[in-house]
Amino acid sequence: MIDLIVEVLGGEEFLARDLGRAHRVFTASAEDRDRFCGLLTWPALNEILNTHRLDPPRLRLAQGGDTIPTSQYCERRTYRRMPPWDAPQPHLVAAQLQDGATLVLDAIEETHPPIRELVSGLERQLHTGVQVNAYASWTAQEGFGVHWDDHDVIVIQISGAKRWRIYGPTRPAPLYRDVVFEDTPPEQPIDEFTLQAGDVLHVPRGWWHAAAASTGQPSLHLTCGLTTHTGIDLLSWLVDELRAHEVIRADLPRLADEASQTAWCREAAKLLAERLEDPALISSYLAARDAAYGSHGGFSLPLAANEHLPADAGLQVWMTTPRAVTRDNGETVALEVAGQRWVLARQAAPLLRLLTSGRPSSLGALAQAADIPIDQAAALLDELLRAGVVAVREP
């Protein structure tokens, strides 16, 4: 799997110069035009559409900035033990696409392993949530018109070509929940270009843009939406952290005199100021978000249904969340993942490094890294398996 951040976007230079700041096109060389073909093929997309129940709006058709009603391309199906479903009909979907619609499939990483692997790598490097949506279109009509997103987007052109217009921002750092909503785009674009297969585009949060396929050439591209970490997010987390103080948990002195209410405000302000003056506050917030981040998948049948994980050195083990946090506490090492915490002997540190690397490791290699017997390593991994933070498979 290609390392999108390092090999395509330029690694630290992209993070420091472009991410969240400026749009930029990363053009593929002639020999790299097919470098993303393994992420999603047309047959793979067809298989996903054929075998998954993708309820709208997760699967939707859009044209000219409007979502097409499901009644125009779906058939209502009823079941005895499941909710009714508007099932997309292939011939009706194809007719809409031929007429200029764009097909959108949200969170495709949940249904397609190559894209799930891409997401895990991005989340491990960027320490933020990532959702990938797939877009397929056939005509020069725009599916969504000129719009902006409330998160940074990395666009990967898989096949075909897509024409883009970038207009820039009208409100710096807009939010999904904001006090002002900007709905008037700039009149003229600041950049126009065509993405070819293998090209990548970065569009910052709040930047107006529009895209359309090149006529007569089917276009397939992915958008990687990056979850933001704003001051609002940090302050919301900090308010939760202040629950440790009785004065914050207690009832407001709403019936007290003005002097008592002023005294409460000063005490609360002091607690908040003390935390905001902590030079490690942002790092603490980011580590807390990483430690609380959930898992991607992890079904490990039939092994997970056994009473104990077998002490088989060949078993393949991997962590199901890409954002685990490890802390070296001298004599011990802590693992914080998916809102849970384990404190282990420092001898386990090499084992945890392997486990959190993002690559599958054998049970034997994990035991060897910590210099412990296989059965002891199996017992530890069994506990992590029962907690839903690792997955296993037979060799």
UniProtKB/TrEMBL annotation:
SMART domains: JmjC (SM00558). Its cofactor is Fe(2+). Pfam families: JmjC_2. PANTHER family: MINA53 MYC INDUCED NUCLEAR ANTIGEN, RIBOSOMAL OXYGENASE 1. One of its GO terms (molecular function) is metal ion binding. Gene3D superfamilies: Cupin. PROSITE patterns: JMJC. SUPFAM superfamilies: Clavaminate synthase-like (SSF51197). Keywords: Iron, Metal-binding. Residues 101-243 form the JmjC domain. It comes from Actinomadura barringtoniae. InterPro entries: JmjC_dom (IPR003347), NO66-like (IPR039994). It comes from the Bacteria. This is Cupin-like domain-containing protein.
